[in-house]
Fold this sequence. Notes:
By secondary structure, the chain is of the alpha/beta class. The protein is built from 9 helices and 11 strands. Helix content is 33%, strand content 29%. The longest helix has 14 residues, at 77-90. The protein is elongated and about 65 Å long. 25% of the residues are buried. The structure holds adenosine-5'-triphosphate. Residues 7-13, 30-33, 36, 51-53, 73-76, 79 line the site of adenosine-5'-triphosphate.
Amino acid sequence: xxxxxxxxxxxxxxxxxxxxxxxxxxxxxxxxxxxxxxxxxxxxxxxxxxxxxxxxxxxxxxxxxxxxxxxxxxxxxxxxxxxxxxxxxxxxxxxxxxxxxxxxxxxxxxxxxxxxxxxxxxxxxxxxxxxxxxxxxxxxxxxxxxxxxxxxxxxxxxxxxxxxxxxxxxxxxxxxxxxxxxxxxxxxxxxxxxxxxxxxxxxxxxxxxxxxxxxxxxxxxxxxxxxx
Length: 228
Ligand code: ATP
């Protein structure tokens, strides 16, 4: 089973550790605040209070054996930096650092971080793209300029087969999957939409207004899709 250490259990580190745990990953949570450790004691596989800038303390918890360590310390940049250097020296296979500024991100990379994330920047750009393209339900950036998006079937595509739409020729995009949205009624009588099972579309499949299309292409091509 994959083992991941989350170092720094603030809001970000806590959600990360809890979600990993819920996903079946074995999580080692570390924080130098005893109260934070106590708060999470029952929720993770193992939570320990230690100062992550203390190499022998980390070694005593076999942190060198984890598959991935995430340095989620936010404000205390010096401590996060030193922790990163120690983890790499201990031989941790993959160290992911959370940076608060692009300058910090660069320094984490310089000292050997395998990956650096900036949650505020990523969340901001994700929200901006969703707001700028209200018809897009969700998207994943694959590499600079390429993405997979989820989009409601545009009205002019409804009732047509994928092969007749010739999306590859017309828009330079590919539909990689389709999933129907269905409306369910919960116990309080409230109606809400849920995503149905994802399916790989056949060229002859007719699209309906309830279908959500999973489309891959360059951001430029995706932006040309009908947005009515
Ligand atoms: P967040 O921004 O995720 O909400 P926060 O603002 O509560 O976090 P930060 O200062 O960003 O707090 O630190 C995140 C966590 O890292 C805190 O719980 C803090 O106790 C912990 N931390 C800071 N320095 C160390 C250290 N040297 N060793 C272990 N944990 C540390």
